[in-house]
Amino acid sequence: MRIYSQLLDPEQDPPMMPLYYLHIRNRNELEVDPDGMELPDIDAAMAEALKVARELTAEIPEYDASTVIEIADGDGQTILTVPFCHVFCPKR
What we know:
The chain has 92 residues and is α+β, with helices and mostly antiparallel strands. The protein is 32% helix and 26% strand.
């Protein structure tokens, strides 16, 4: 009944959203996301990863279709890998 108790006590902090880290792997190098971000779910994390991939491909020429974003949960476990190919490669 945590949600119910929060309704009774408005000064209590609202429940936090899950924390996701977007690490970038380019060939053998891993750039670790030290801060992460709170997002509602894995679908939102994937959407954010695709947005980041689009932005980075425009800014950093070394990032190509072989680069990936590894989405890790709050415990640091990789739960999804998003290839930059999703930005470069046409949909079939």
